[in-house]
């Protein structure tokens, strides 16, 4: 398993309890990293939608879109979705930068 490969060696000098804590912290950091990566990719996809459909009168992808596509209805709350996505990413980044004990 790739996630297991990224876990640090807990070493023989740690008590079983401390080793378990270190392992859980490493797993948690992997999950946080995955959340950050997924959210950043999602925001890139949203930016692609903006460039392709919203910033152009006909849209970059208009040839592939159905004629009756109502872009305004489809992306009516786009700005709010994008704003929330950026806020979420920023907050998760800030929390991830804190020591685990402060999160």
**Percentage beta strand:** under 5%
| Total beta-strand segments | 0
Provide mean pLDDT, rounded: 79
Q: How large is the radius of gyration?
A: 21 Å
Largest sheet: none
Shape: elongated
Q: H/E order of the elements? A: HHHH
Distance between the termini: 27 Å
Tally of individual helices:
4
Give the proportion of residues in helices: 55-70%
The low-confidence parts are none
Query: Structural class, from secondary structure content?
Result: mainly alpha
Plain-language structure description:
It is a single chain. This protein is mainly α. The protein contains 4 helices and no strands. The mean pLDDT is 79.
Topology:
Blueprint: H1 2-5, H2 16-54, H3 71-74, H4 78-97
Helix pairs in contact: 2-4
Key features of this structure:
mainly alpha; 103 residues; single chain; 4 helices; 65% helix
Short description:
The chain has 103 residues and is mainly α. It has four helices and no strands.
């Amino acid at each position: 398993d790739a996630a297991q490969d990224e876990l640090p060696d807990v070493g023989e000098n740690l008590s079983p309890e401390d080793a378990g804590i270190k392992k859980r912290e490493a797993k948690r950091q992997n999950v946080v990293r995955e959340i950050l990566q997924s959210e950043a990719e999602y925001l890139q996809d949203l930016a692609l939608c903006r460039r392709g459909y919203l910033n152009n009168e006909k849209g970059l992808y208009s040839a592939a879109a159905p004629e009756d596509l109502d872009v305004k209805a489809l992306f009516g709350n786009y700005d709010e979705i994008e704003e929330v996505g950026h806020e979420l990413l920023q907050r998760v980044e800030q929390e991830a930068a804190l020591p685990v004990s402060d999160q």
